[in-house]
Amino acid sequence: MAKKILLLLGWSCIAVLAASAENYTGDFLTNGVGGRALGLGGAYVSIADDATATYWNPAGIASVARRQGTAEAGGTPAANQLCLMHAARRSGLGAFNYVSGVRHIVPELAVGLSWIRAGIDDIPIYPTIPAFDDNISADARKNIERLRPKEKDFIPTGYLSDSENAYILTLAKRFVVSQSWWDNFGRNSLPPELLIGFNAKWISQRINDAGSLDVATAAIYNYGSSGYGFDAGLLVRLPDLNALFGLQVGSFAFGINWQDISKTTLTWNTPFATYKESIPANVNLGLAYSNRRVFNRELIVSYQWQGRYGGQTHLGMEYHLSAPLALRVGYRAGGLTSGVGVQLRQFRLDYALLIGDIINTHFLSLLWRF
């Protein structure tokens, strides 16, 4: 009975029902990363213009240096980006972290490496005692003293740690219409660009003793799972409509991210048996609009639809109050989000707040261009 309780306490319980495994396997990968993207409600698949694109849309890293390198006046193009993110979840009981790096290895071709980790420590282990036996009735506990719960029954005999990790390698290529050919339309305009990208990822989950158990007992509570999967992304950006229609109304972008296109399978090895779980394939579709002339500042509005969990809608809006300061609001699967971003030379600090039914979650990330 105690073992059943422990599995419920962990974030990565072994699924008993196939339907449950299909819906929630690898659920930590659906949290999202980056303070900017999360502040926009996760509607980021069609924006994906920084190092967090390794998660949101792998195609986006192909234009990271081109779109971001000259953001600061007098700056030189930055060929590399590094992003760090941390969030304390469940009132501090769990932590969620993300690290990613992106660089161009040859012109128009970029590579990215990222690591996502969700973990929770100090999961208590309780002994198998009558107090937790479902077969003992309430009347029996009332009338038989030895079956009544005692204070010592609620003292843990040890603790467990749960860790879920994803290691991702990203490659992306950029294709763009030549400016000289595009100028044949006879209007001052920037040509459209097409970006494609791919992820190869290794997922590892582990539940183990936190060093509080003897060797024999610890062996029962040490087990994990692992598996690999693939994602593919597509991003089309149309900087303006001037060349085609003579309209200067802002820019548009369309993005697609196919996650776990091979139906990623995780194999659990436990002391009792071997289980297999599958992360279902998922598709994210998004559309973004940007206009730099709203009160002489940039406004971005984005929409994203996610296929997993029966379909979810994400909405986001970002407005730059000044060159270094941006405010964000969003909507994500029934909850509101908000955030703020501050640009300081080659650094950008982003904060996001996700408002939940029970508890709010704070995300903080740092983006460094160098």
CATH superfamily: monomeric porin ompg
Anisotropy-based shape? elongated
Query: Helix segment count?
Result: 9
Give the biggest sheet.
Answer: 14 strands, antiparallel, barrel
Radius of gyration: 24 Å
Q: In angstroms, what separates the terminal alpha carbons?
A: 54 Å
Overall tally of domains: 1
CATH uppermost class: Mainly Beta
Main β-sheet, spatial strand arrangement = 1-2-3-4-5-6-7-10-11-12-13-14-15-16
> CATH topology, which one?
Porin
Q: Give the second-level CATH assignment, the architecture.
A: Beta Barrel
Q: What is the N-to-C succession of helices and strands? A: HHHHHEEEHEHEHEHEEEEEEEEEE
Whole-number mean pLDDT = 83
Share in helix: 10-25%
Strand element count: 16
Strand percentage, roughly?
over 45%
Structural class comes to mainly beta
Contiguous low-pLDDT stretches (5 residues minimum) are: 1-22, 67-76
Question: What's the quick description here?
Answer:
The protein is mainly beta and 370 residues long.
Give structural notes.
The chain has one domain: Porin. It has helices at 2-9, 18-24, 35-39, 53-56, 64-68, 138-143, 179-182, 215-218, 242-245, and strands at 80-89, 94-106, 109-125, 158-176, 193-209, 223-238, 251-259, 265-269, 274-278, 282-294, 297-306, 312-320, 325-332, 335-344, 347-354, 361-369. Mean pLDDT is 83; it is low at 1-22 and 67-76. The chain has a 14-stranded antiparallel beta barrel with strand order 1-2-3-4-5-6-7-10-11-12-13-14-15-16. It contains nine helices and 16 strands. The longest helix is centred in the first third of the chain and has 8 residues, at 2-9. A hairpin with a 2-residue loop joins strand 2 (94-106) and strand 3. By secondary structure, it is mainly beta.
